[in-house]
């Protein structure tokens, strides 16, 4: 569980929303006291998006272990190859 103050949350809102969508609990605090929680809306029809690569607001870069594996037949069709 990560807690962020309101100023930090305003500055990095899109990154915090992405964390919540990926299942992490995001708590917002005012004067050090928790006041709100960002949670994803449950949508059973939408498959969970797998993070391939990216960078969070701290500058930490993430690359999935299989990011450079050969594409599957389904992925090739999606890319029109």
From TrEMBL:
<protein>
    <recommendedName>
        <fullName>Antitoxin</fullName>
    </recommendedName>
</protein>
<dbReference type="Pfam" id="PF02604">
    <property type="entry name" value="PhdYeFM_antitox"/>
</dbReference>
<comment type="similarity">
    <text>Belongs to the phD/YefM antitoxin family.</text>
</comment>
<comment type="function">
    <text>Antitoxin component of a type II toxin-antitoxin (TA) system.</text>
</comment>
<dbReference type="InterPro" id="IPR006442">
    <property type="entry name" value="Antitoxin_Phd/YefM"/>
</dbReference>
<dbReference type="InterPro" id="IPR036165">
    <property type="entry name" value="YefM-like_sf"/>
</dbReference>
